Amino acid sequence: MSLQKCTVLYDGRALVGPQNVPLIDFLETCNITLPHVCYHPALDPLQTCDVCWVEQEGKLVRGCTLRSHEGLVINSLDTQARAAREEGMDRLLAKHELYCTVCEHNTGDCTLHNTMVDMHIPIQRYPYTRKPYVKDHSNPFYTYDPDQCILCGRCVDACQNVEVNETLSIDYTMEHPRVLWDGGNQIAGSSCVSCGHCVTVCPCNALLEKSMQPDAGPFTSMRQSLKRPLIDVIKVLENSTGAEIISGISVIDTALRQQEIKRTKTVCTYCGVGCSFEMWTRDRQLLKVQPVVDAPVNGISTCVKGKFAWDFINSPQRLTTPLIRENDRFRPASWEEALTLVASRLLQTRDQYGPDSIGFIGSSKGSNEEAYLTQKIARAIIGTNSVDNSSRYCQNPATEGLFRTVGYGGDAGTIDDLQQAELVIIVGSNTAENHPVIASRLKAAKKHYGQKWLVVDPRRHEMAERADLHLRIHPGSDLVWASAMARYMFDHGYEDAGFLAERVNQVEAYRQSLTPFTLDYAAQITGIQEETLREAAELIGKAGSVCIMWAMGITQHSHGADTSTALSNLLLVTGNYGRPGTGGYPMRGHNNVQGASDFGCLKNFYPGYESVSDPQIREKWAKAWGVPAERLSLKVGQDNFMMVELARKEVIRAMYVIGEETAFSDADAENVHQGFTNLDFLVVQDLFLSRTAQFADVVLPGCPSVEKEGSFVNTERRIQRFYPVMAPLGDSRPDWWILTQLAARMGHDWGYQHPQEIMAEVAGIAESFAGVSYSRLEGWKSQIWPVNADGSSTPLLYTERFKSPDGRATLYPLSWQPPAEEADAEYDLLLNNGRMLEHFQSTNQTGQGGRTTSLSPDWFVEISPQLASARSLQEGDWVKLISRRGEVEVPVVVTDRVQGKVLFISIHQGKDGINKLTGEHHDPSVNTPAYKELAVRLETLDRPPLPDPLPKHNFRHGKRTAIDKVPVEEKWQRADYREPPATEPHPEKF
């Protein structure tokens, strides 16, 4: 909102409010409502509903097109303006059957209903006319009812220009216009990714969540055979009594419903984008997820998981009581018995084998406060630094690369900086599927402001399709092209000499290290033509601001830390740190994988990345925790990867795993399972009896985020608070409560009664969080670390200093080392792997209820048309993929998303999954498994093909229909259109 003020003369009254904002929003700040339906503060002015007419300078204008400025004079009481508004509403009602009291959407959120009531419409002047279409139920999450659609175009603008999936359109030239999916009538099979934008902005019940149907209100669940006659009676009654009596009943109904509906702000439990939104619930029934404009990361944006994938909350598979293994079977237990057993066995193991015989894996889906308590138990009670989280499997290499060069292990700026950049380089990141809301922001920047993209990836995903230049690289060779780009900058005068001289160390040594990295050499190693590499280099060199994004396509290699370093080096050479629209952005995969690391679930750092090996740091934490300094180890602990390895060797004797599916996610599943089998004692704290929990001696039922309170940190270092939407299911408990109770039974009664007390403790010790508090995180507020003691955030890092003793960055010389595993004569194919939009990790959450998995229920491998032809394979044929460790059987999907002898497979399905194939080879700097370095051979199986392994209703089969805006001019240009206040012969068509 603008801080500058202006005075607007409205209906003869002088109103003071923010300058240069939409008139409708300006009036709202003055507690005045200008009737409107198609206007939405997150969308462009659509001008489709004709309900907001006002008089300005003697002319009728649509109020949604005006912005506040000094001296603006508006008259809404003008007779013609009022008549035009009423005519506009009359036309909307000709397209929409008002049956509000039995409508699922009459919960106070229906813009059409609320505006109609506010305008005191006396009667529906134009008769409602049914359209020649049926209601579309083909999507698992929402419906489209053409008979209720008012053709406002909100959904189209949200899809085209906010989400930028470019699926929806309206053809106003049709005999009976309606919303179209890829130009057709059915949602299923179109390019719709079920992000829910369209449902969120729909001003009526034309687009509606299936979870709102049919029992959103006291009368909505009645069967259609009763509802239909009742509606017909009410519509006849309206003509004699007038509409206001009937609408008055619906207003009462709205009020009654709102008393039952609870709206709670929460933060998404899926990827690292950090979307926040309201959850609408009645008791334990989740009616809908409703994003709001005030959400700091996403605004009104969501993806399929954040909007719809919450069926797991009430899944009958949820753990609701502690379990103890006896005679190789689980039996229910009380919390007292379970926690007492866990406490005694951990202390017994510590005393018998030493502190380092126990390992802790904290949750990247739990809260910051819970991560803090996990490492506090490990360090202050057990005395070990062997504590880690799932960032070991994905983003630790990126963190290491940033530590080496610029100093902080997080994004250099915010999503706003990504959107501002002139050029975004996207490396090893299928952003549209893995971080879809960030992808939407970037797609909008590209579509509307001409942002350029350089995408480097072996696979042609959506970001690659939209890129200005796509480098289809040989997997694992990214360090070479990045270093070649850096050399090209020096050789052609594109380096930022002033920035390097003033702010960067080791410039000359680094430049000398680039000698081998010619474009010719890079072309040989990467498989990209030299001319294409030169084109990429020129794109980088000439860009005024550059951001680089990368994800698991970079980090999950045997030298992912080095490649991450190379990317950061390239940014330093070109001076692309410390300015808006610049910096390195490693995309975090889980909702709190950043926060789990930030708050101390790392083998070498206390919260705030304070070294465990520094005696002074140890002294500080020991004093704060009230324990002897010698209790806190100065020795770097073991990480996830090594804990499992040492469990297999019976060096680690006990483990405590919170909210992580390690048995599914760690590489080389057979070795992982053997390690867990060899443990003397394993505790698993989770929502479900996961694959990991099946190895446990004690299973503790934790709570999802919607059943507790806490905070998360997203990929841009933003700390956000979430609130309890509903009570814990059964006898499950919030993880922070479980850990607090466990500590008390181990002789350390910390006495926390609320997570805010835990956050206050962290803020009092860790410098990076000095000014973080729950009061400063209230509602939609957020903070971005480092947070100063006065509460001020640091959205953009490195504006003045880098995180180093001398405040300077460091260029870090590197040499090329090939992948640890490559294709050879026996294992002649490379099996790339990664996430899919509709699934998440082990599908423990997204796999519940069946709606999300229905989009792609079967595991499959993508193969190129070239390979399919060479091996005589057709869509759906079964193959066996055999690696040096194991084998899996899957059907094939033939697609040009992959090329040549590089395949792609999802990491989600098949409960032992991809890690039956992956190996122990890993990045020696950070012990991240090289999941992406996977050579296989392929054998055809004599088995009937699986029809449609990627179902025909899946969005990947769709063909987008991109438009710039809702084509309202088409409506105005129709021969039968009359501009209000003139009456309209065919109002149902507009």
From TrEMBL:
Write the record's keywords in alphabetical order, separated by commas: 2Fe-2S, 4Fe-4S, Iron, Iron-sulfur, Metal-binding, Molybdenum, Oxidoreductase
Query: Which residues belong to any copy of the 4Fe-4S ferredoxin-type domain?
Result: 140-167, 183-212
Q: Which GO terms describe its molecular function?
A: formate dehydrogenase (NAD+) activity
Please give the start and end residues of each transmembrane region. none
Which PROSITE patterns does the UniProt record give? Answer: 4FE4S_FER_1, 4FE4S_FER_2, 4FE4S_HC3, 4FE4S_MOW_BIS_MGD, MOLYBDOPTERIN_PROK_1
Region (Disordered): which ranges?
942-990
Q: Which InterPro entries match?
A: 2Fe-2S_ferredoxin-like_sf (IPR036010), 4Fe4S_Fe-S-bd (IPR017896), 4Fe4S_Fe_S_CS (IPR017900), Asp_de-COase-like_dom_sf (IPR009010), Formate_Dh-H_N (IPR041924), Formate_DH_asu (IPR006478), MoPterin_dinucl-bd_dom (IPR006657), Mopterin_OxRdtase (IPR006656)
Which intervals hold domain 4Fe-4S Mo/W bis-MGD-type?
Answer: 261-317
Spell out the CDD domains in the cross-references. MopB_Formate-Dh-H
Q: Which SUPFAM superfamilies match?
A: 2Fe-2S ferredoxin-like, 4Fe-4S ferredoxins, ADC-like, Formate dehydrogenase/DMSO reductase, domains 1-3
Residue stretches of biased makeup (Basic and acidic residues): 961-990
Pfam annotation, one family = Fer2_4
Q: What is its EC number?
A: 1.17.1.9
Q: Which domain of life is it from?
A: Bacteria
Enzyme type, top EC level: oxidoreductase
Which cofactors, if any, are listed as required? Mo-bis(molybdopterin guanine dinucleotide)
Pinpoint the 4Fe-4S His(Cys)3-ligated-type domain residues: 80-120
The entry's family comment says: Belongs to the complex I 75 kDa subunit family.
The protein here is known as: Formate dehydrogenase subunit alpha
Q: Which gene encodes it?
A: fdhF
